[in-house]
Amino acid sequence: MSYGRADSYRSQPRDFNNLIQTCSTNIQKITQNTGQMKSILYQLGTRQDTPELQERLQQVQHYTNQLAKETNRHLKDLGSLPPPHSPSEQRQQKIQKDRLMNDFSAALNNFQVVQRRAAEKERESVARVRAGTHLTEEDGLRTPDEQLVTFESNEERSQLQTQADELPITEEDLEDIRERETNIKQLESDIMDVNQIFKDLAVMIHDQGDMIDSIEANVESAETHVDRGAEQLQRAAYYQRKARKRKCILVIILVLVLTILGIILWQASK
User: Fold this and answer.
1) What whole-number distance in Å separates Cα of residue 81 and Cα of residue 194?
2) Residue 176 resides in a domain
3) 130, 209, 214, 239: most buried by Cβ count inside 10 Å?
């Protein structure tokens, strides 16, 4: 059964649309797997609880954790892509990334809540096993023979032997405790991974905010330059019209002067 394991990260194309689609798909898988984990947790500690069920929980949890880390890497790739030239496309991509980060953050929150609940369930199970075998935390990973040696040094071997006859400590009990404690360590490690992803998300959101502020500033600057250019064109057109009027007046004056001179010369010739 597939739980959405992240095993093809390197083969994924690095273009914007593909990254957006891959992240969206991963987030959906994280949400679905979180729902599966919740369903399994309800069965733990009941008659339906089996080693197979516990193993399934561990698999779903760990695969989902890998999916979260892969999605985090994809989001970083999105942030490293060069922005498009068009301001409208830049805004559109920013909206898509914002929506994606919000969805991812919500899915991570739900996943981490279930992770912590799974860790609590494992600790409760270990406590029940220990209580049933009279094992302490220090005794949990020691063999029965090693425990006998400890009590022998305290001259209590006879008392221990009586207890062992009544409630025998089996290798199966010890193996169960070891396995559950290993699961707890894995859960705690995965929870730390999710904490780091939250930190990375906060940095990406902050950086993206700075980037869009810079884009808006550039757009406003461009608009200002456009306005100034339009104003200068209007002034140039005004001065051009004024210059034409002056040329026309000068031409008319010149024509009048030439006409008057022509008349004067014509009269003088008579």
Assistant:
1) 24
2) yes
3) 130
pTM flag (> 0.90): no
Q: 127 lies in a domain? A: yes
CA distances from 126 to 80, 141, 145 (A): 45, 12, 21
CATH code of the domain containing 43: 1.20.58.70
* pLDDT tens, N- to C-terminus, the chain (270 residues): 555 445 444 445 468 999 999 999 999 999 999 999 999 999 887 888 888 888 899 899 999 999 999 999 999 998 888 888 888 898 998 899 999 999 999 999 999 999 999 888 888 877 776 676 555 555 444 444 444 344 444 555 555 455 444 455 677 777 777 887 888 888 888 888 888 998 888 888 777 654 444 444 544 544 554 556 556 667 766 777 777 888 888 888 888 888 887 788 777 776
What would the 3-class secondary structure string for the chain be? CCCCCCCCHHHCCCCHHHHHHHHHHHHHHHHHHHHHHHHHHHHCCCCCCCHHHHHHHHHHHHHHHHHHHHHHHHHHHHHHCCCCCCHHHHHHHHHHHHHHHHHHHHHHHHHHHHHHHHHHHHHHHHHHHHHHHCCCCCCCCCCHHHHHHHHHHCCCHHHHHHHHHHCCCCHHHHHHHHHHHHHHHHHHHHHHHHHHHHHHHHHHHHHHHHHHHHHHHHHHHHHHHHHHHHHHHHHHHHHHHHHHHHHHHHHHHHHHHHHHHHHHHHHHHC
User: Does 212 map to a domain?
Assistant: no
Q: How many domains does the chain have?
A: 1
Contact in structure between 122 and 41 (CB atoms under 8 Å): no
Range of the domain at 169: 9-206
